[in-house]
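Justification of computing resources. Each target in the renewal requires a structure prediction run like the one illustrated here; the chain below, 100 residues long, is used simply to show the kind of job we budget for.
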Amino acid sequence: MTGEIIFQARNRHGVSAGNPPQIDSTSAGKYYGYFENEHGEQAIFIYDRETKTGALWMGDAGWERPYKVIDGLAPELILSQEEEMWLQACWNAATAFETK
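Resulting structure tokens:
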């Protein structure tokens, strides 16, 4: 592997959303997902396969706080149908090969 960047996203949220997370995908054993809705609101999902935990950052909910994702749901957030579908798809992809 050459370590070339294959994806970058610029913050589309204002200063009031706080500092966006600086995500470095060099850590092994993690799944990363990115979403942007029709209003330009952004979300980042990370699943840690070692700890079997998921976290969600959303610009419109404040970048500086990750929210727990449990079984593909973010119970502390109100998500649109599209955001819920994306998050569930990320969860399914991240956990598809886990043994229960």
